[in-house]
Amino acid sequence: MNDKIYREYLAILREEIVPALGCTEPIAIAYASAKARAVLGCLPERIVVRCSGNIIKNVKAVVVPTTGDMKGIETSAVLGAVGGNPDKKLEVLTDVTEEDLALTRKLLKQGICRVELLEGVSSLQIIVEMWAGEDTSLVEIAFAHTNIVRIERNGEILFRKGLTARFATETDRSLLNLRDIYDFANCVDVNEVRELLERQVECNLKIAEEGFSNRYGANVGATILESFGNDVKNRARAYPAAGSDARMNGCVLPVMINSGSGNQGMTVSLPVEIYARELHVSQEKKIRALVLSNLIAIYQKNELGKLSAYCGVVSASVGAGAAIAYLHNADWEVIEETIVNTLGNISGIVCDGAKASCAAKIASSVDAAVMAYHMAAVNRGFRSGEGLVKQDAEKTLRSYGRMGREGMKATDIEILKIMLEDE
Fold first, then answer.
1. All domains of the chain, ordered by start, with CATH?
2. What are the strands, taking DSSP E only, across 105-226?
3. 277-291 pLDDT, tens per residue?
């Protein structure tokens, strides 16, 4: 295939599939706070965190990792300032100690942190400002979880970059399309992606096993296997759900993410691993299926934006469904139909924040993707003109992307209002 597209797709995979400890929205706040503390040069006496609505939505009900049971923006910001290591980015809280947690609780009781809603330029935007004596610092993140766009100390700008989505990544996402993704999955030198994707599976399997072994959240993953049996379809649903059970509820194991999300990272990888084992495919075939799954999910999120009212695990399950079809040696037409069938079914799932029920949404989405493949395999599916389904998978994906990106903006605002009503 075209060498530019080949190299760019490799770079996109390496840019998006990275480790993260905990839900990425509280971690992004902790990262910004740790960076602001480093710029300030000492522990702050006062912190103000300004966040876009989607950040507030996704931090409200999820446990901040290493804390045991502590939640919220204030916890994320104060803990990041006290014990965060900004050099570790999305693993910023890896080195937190019991002493750090004790000091964090003390500072939270003193009320040193205030949170404000930020109506800015991005659905993913965080501004952390700190004060200590006469000194101040400010760090701003926008469009991507570690994309720092501004750093200030005592009002002096130390760093600034373009405040648009175009500057949030180093790769050219405009080159993404379904047919090129499929061709890339077929022709990529497996040795160039093997280590990355094997690490994704290994890391995400580990947290899934933890989710099965211990009580986290609603234990959706364990419930699936206990109630419905241990066949391949139920394992494909249960494993990413169990990983989400653990991750949403304070487990300190990292995950390998996709599109800025650990839940999406588990959804694009674990069902593919489960089906690859069941079908006894070669390691090379599995790696190519993982390439397909990851890139299809990334492509959809590029259309939707990092955060929105559209549940991201839908995008991830579309990728997983396409990869499951690929593992069954389906041709391109069946893979396309699998994508359309999945989108035509579950694209209405809304994101009402990161929390325990994300595990159930993963299970439902993977279930829909598996059904979509089995329908496509016998030439059954949803046709153009039925709802948002268009003439082919490419146009259908863009149709649903537009619905999520533009059509659900008002829904996103209303979801946040409803979530905050009891506060």
1. 19-167 (3.30.1330), 173-420 (1.10.4100.10)
2. 113-117, 125-132, 135-142, 148-153, 156-160
3. 999 999 999 999 999
